[in-house]
Amino acid sequence: MIGHGFMGAAHSQGWRVAPRFFDLPARPEMTLLVGRNAGRTEAAAQKWGWEQTETDWRGAIARDDVDVIDIVTPGASHAEIAIAALEAGKHVLCEKPLANSLEEAEAMTAAAEGAVGSAMVGFTYRRVPAAAFARDLVQSGAVGEIRQVRAVYLQDWLVDPEAPLTWRLQKDLAGSGALGDLGAHAVDLAQFITGQKITAVSGTLNTFVHERPLLGHGSGLAGTATAERGTVTVDDLALFNSRFDGGAVGSFEATRMSTGRKNALRIEVAGSRGTISFDLEKMNSLGFYDATAPATRQGFTDIMVTEPEHPYISAWWPAGHMLGYEHGFSHQVKDFVEAISEGRQPEPSFADGLQVQRVLGGVERSASHESIWTGTES
Ligand code: SOE
User: Fold this and answer.
1) Looking at the structure, do residues 162 and 307 belong to the same domain, yes or no?
2) Where is the Gfo/Idh/MocA-like oxidoreductase N-terminal domain (predicted)?
């Protein structure tokens, strides 16, 4: 695994726990953790259970006893590492968003298409049982013809203008702000649940806080502030409308400055027969309105997605017992290892990641042209 920040912790937990709960066709060994700072990498390796450490990712790719490369670095290094790993015949799991630009995502997808190894992008929220079940419900026809998608991903860890300028606020490292960090999840999940692809977007981006204190110590989400200030080079909010290839129309909002909202990834899909409503903050249930029920019994139901018949659940606790944020990372490892062992293309593929990148790029292009009505015209 290359990188050891927040996602490094989450992925480590997935690699460690998945083979203990799921009956996997191959048993992953946590061979090597790579990070630029030897001391910090060693400490992370000991904490999470990686056998060895290395300071250069090229060293990991050169090793014969490494079959899988898991990339959990900021977006700026995804393309270089993933392409080199695929060229060396490794299987690659790469954190979202796939890359920082369309060109990089295209090159990564081309590398994946010609590779012997498998390549998957880490849109982990597909593996929340309620999200996977939402897709199953749509596929069963319970929602009917899908007409509207309403998706928001709202956090508030950047509301304070003194929150430091971590890498997630720097375009050269992160590619974009809320758009790529959170909007990418909303786009992927909306496409996954509906089974439709977004084909057109129109949107706007906004930055509310243009300067922040430079980071002293800390990581991608938080840290200590220094006296010096630097420029925020990404969006704080992305707002866009979209058309899907199956005829649905959608609205999206992504921001890390929505006061009071902690991790609110919410998606509502309304169709001719029913509506489903997913909320990551209530991840053990799924809202469902069945318009075919008798009029006297209609209303939204909170389906508890905690039963062995629901996706992924049977491997865990007795019926009715809840799962959390971290389980998605175990489900991701399970699906990835199974696909590799069975010689199947794992999903979401790099091509799926590229498609999300096209949507993000479309929003940026649209935002740079801005409004039809400027307020000054009559
Ligand atoms: C921070 O906004 C963050 O950690 C994102 O980077 C992740 O993609 C999301 O899953 C949770 O929030």
Assistant:
1) yes
2) 1-122
